[in-house]
Amino acid sequence: ANEFYSDPADEYSRLVLRTARALDRMYGIVYNAGIFLTDSESSELRRVLARLGASVMSLRDLSRAQGLTAWNVTPKMHMLQHVGSFPGNVNPRWVQCYQEESSIGTTAKVWSRSASGRNINKEILS
To answer: Which of 19, 68, 76, 83 might form a disulfide with 55, Cβ 3.0–4.6 angstroms?
Structure first.
């Protein structure tokens, strides 16, 4: 991002850099912390995720004004923006579960059902 978006006068470049830095800082927090975040780590994570969300929404608005559909907010991105507001200090790195996320869970179930062929054991589907 630093190489391609280095113009500080360009609003789009500034927001791309802010988004990349927020993501980098978020990963730094969750991968360096233990199972439970300290109060300062939890506070920093909330701050970083708020900045990430605001930057992505601003990038989305700038793109829309240019007639582009960039910076789409997927369910995972939407949830990520709210992780900092979840109660408790459990590190999200330790509790994420892709099976429970709608798009991954649905995809896994469709694959499971189709991989078994037409004669599906009903116990597998439950």
So the answer is: 19
